[in-house]
Amino acid sequence: MCKIIQFPAERISHTNGYNNLTLLFEVCDTVESCNFYLETTENLYDGGNITETELYTLRRIGRQKRLELATPKREPQKADKPGTYIYTPEMGQEKPEGCQIEASLSFYGKHYFLDTPLELKGRGITFLKKYSSDDLTAAGQYKVGWNEYRVTKNAYEKLKTQYTISYKSCLD
After folding, report:
1. Which residues contact 84 (CB under 8 A, 6 or more apart)?
2. 29-74: per-residue pLDDT in tens?
3. In what order do the strands lie in the sheet containing 125-130?
4. What CA–CA distance (Å, rounded) separates 35 from 55?
5. Distance CA 124, CA 23 (A)
6. What letters, b where the CB count within 10 A reaches 16 and e where it falls short, cover 57-75?
7. Do the beta carbons of residue 51 and residue 11 sit within 8 Å?
8. DSSP 3-state assignment of 65?
9. d(CA 82, CA 20)
10. What is residue 170's predicted lDDT score, i.e. its pLDDT?
11. What is the three-state SS of 88-139?
12. In DSSP terms, which residues pair with 116 in a beta bridge?
């Protein structure tokens, strides 16, 4: 027989200065205000109002926020003509707007998988399934009711002359 020993969990309590500055960094919208909050962080530490670990954490949060504010947001491509629109999320690119089909290349590169609300038919196009909410994650719920197809390379070449297709290219 054994006895289970319950160890008390240590709660980390932060100072009011730390709590307030983390909230201020979240709502900060200019580089100047972010710099002001970083200066305030240093002043609080010099005055003994925040701990050293809180200082380092606030510096990290502030510097990351300043980098976010310094780099402008890129506008996503607008898909206005038929063709393939390639984007790379790791490089900060966003998915093109207005694409009718989402494509991905198969593992061995012999065919493509297409997700679309359209009904496609033709030579080299195989219907696989219609997506339900159980098939998708929370981020992919916009695809409920869409169709999944497996398409040969030749069929894909014909489809990209008729439809706007977004293709997610990952840096592997």
Report:
1. 103, 160, 165, 166, 167
2. 899 999 999 999 999 999 999 999 999 999 999 999 999 888 777 7
3. 83-87, 164-168, 101-105, 111-116, 147-152, 125-130
4. 14
5. 55
6. bbeebbeebbeeeeeeeee
7. no
8. helix
9. 50
10. 84
11. CHHHCCCCCECCCEEEEECCCCCEEEEEECCCCCCCCEEEEEECCHHHCCCC
12. 147
Q: Please tell me the distance from the alpha carbon of residue 39 to that of residue 126, in angstroms, as a whole number.
A: 61
What 3-state class would DSSP assign to 153? helix
Q: pLDDT over 70 for what percent of the chain?
A: 95
Distance in angstroms (rounded) separating the CA atoms of residues 138 and 155: 31
Question: Residue 12's pLDDT is what?
Answer: 67
Q: Is the confidence at residue 10, as pLDDT, over 80?
A: no
- Give dist(CA 128, CA 147) in Å, integer: 8
Amino acid identity at 82: P
Separation of alpha carbons 50 and 9, rounded Å:
23
